[in-house]
Amino acid sequence: MSIGGSTAEAELASLATIDRSGQRPPAIQPAEHAARIERALRLMEEMGAGTLLITAGASLRYFTGVPWGATERLVALLLRRGRRPSMICPAFELGSLKEVLAVDADILLWEEDESPAELLASAVAGYGTLALDPAAPFLLFSNLRAITPALKVVDATPVVDGCRARKSATELALLSYAKGLTLDIHRRAASILHPGIRASAVKRFIDQAHRAVGADNGSTFCAVQFGVASSFPHGIPGDQELAEGDIVLIDTGCQIDGYHSDITRTYVFGEPSAEQRRIWAIEHEAQAAAFAAARPGQTCESVDYAARAVLERYGLGPDYKLPGLPHRTGHGIGLQIHEGPYLVRGDKTILAPGMCFSNEPMIVMPGAFGIRLEDHMYITEDGAAWFTEPSPSIDKPFG
Question: For residue 241, what is the DSSP state?
Fold first, then answer.
């Protein structure tokens, strides 16, 4: 597909004719959730924690299949060494919980006029150290500390990241499928561009297209930036109108059974200038350098260094100075669009097979334009592999 020449209506109609039956990977099964809990119990033992509490959010979904977001009411998984898993839940939500819970667990209920912190304090009494979800609300910690000041509470990040950072084959398949859908929608979005189209119209099309291909809830996010707006990594207010010669930067993604895509493409509507070509080529080279550096046994920060070394050879930067790369090279991805570990200076996490990252060493030219090429990769036994192939050239951004 080329840039321009089609319409939103034509592309949506085309998507409706595609038979995707049999293509979508299977969802995470109860046996995999159970294996995750067993691994968490082993990691708890290694860190000397008798109990672990995982509150509502991505980690709760990871371990139990419960897709609920956090609210002021405590919903959580409680693991106690030597005991069956338990779920803490408001009593009036019991029926809804049973519909989504993917693991065999005891249920600990609390009523609206009761304190869930008191229920938790009673449940962990005698087990020693509590490893607390790093995403847990501070109010829960504060209330628990007031009730049982002698309880030792530690950060559960080693358990959470120790389980979630390395993706299984099933997770990789879901991530790959989501990213493939989004890349196809990127191609189609480029084909509907024309002079005068507004960013909002492109965003609307991308959301409709994500819904048409069966994403969980349409686009999880969508940034469409034209011209100077592309020089702001997350855009600026306003609804830009496309003009000939503008840089087009589109960053969007979706979810499939909770697993995220997040892909950025940058190209020019019309004939690129010499400077646009130069910076696009440097960005492409930096992305390739980061990919080559992403090998098991290396540190996360070494990938960031590799991308920045390319930019510095061309007089960009150094560090976060502009013109150059103002942010990290990449982030982990899975059930959260941004999750640890991160490809950034200071993150000395050792890369290991199954880890998944964005690769997006953006170049910002202040007051002019920005170029971000973002694809995702996963670590294998002997290097890295792409989920989606990078954009080949500024003239043919989709090959």
Answer: B
